[in-house]
Amino acid sequence: MHFIGKDMDQYLSQQEYVDTAVVPLLELDLSPSGLKSSAGASEYLQSLTALLEKQFRGRILLFPPVTYTSGADRVRLAEEISTEMKRAAFKHVFYMTTDAEWRSVDQLENVLWLPAIPTEHMDRNFKQSVMEDQLRQVLPLFIKEWS
Fold first, then answer.
1. Where are the domains of the chain?
2. pLDDT interval class at 73 (50, 70, 90)
């Protein structure tokens, strides 16, 4: 389910089955040198998490990306997000990001770092194939956590 109004009615009625939250973590870099890579990372991460949600609809709730700047205090942000996720009582929480700095933040468990693959110039079919390949790499991590 997506974090949108129409899906929230379904989530509230089936909350006991939706035990997993997926939180994309997205660095926003609006500098001239970082703008394009930041936008590409956003496109990649949102495409991948949407595909993941489609695969596990009814089991996961996909949150909108938590967007922050490069100078953000990731430790403080991690503590705030983690507190909210615990309050929401999700049994499993996964944080997906293309920002390698999250790998060293101990306040979050299940941080899945993936290098952003530029998909901007790919045709639709090739992009879909690439995203499915990426999903196949991530799925075992979810299944392991659930078992």
1. 5-146
2. very high
- Which DSSP symbol is given to 109? S
CA Rg, the chain, in Å?
15
Question: What residue type is assigned to position 95 of the chain?
Answer: Y
Q: Which residues contact 141 (CB under 8 A, 6 or more apart)?
A: 94, 110, 112
CA atoms within 13 A on the CB side of 124: 0
pLDDT digits (tens, 9 = 90+) for 17-52: 899 999 999 999 999 988 999 999 999 999 999 999
> Which residues 6+ apart lie within 8 Å of 138 measured at CB?
48, 52, 96, 112, 114
In the chain, pLDDT over 90 holds for what percent of residues? Answer: 63
Question: What is the CATH code for 5-146?
Answer: 3.40.50
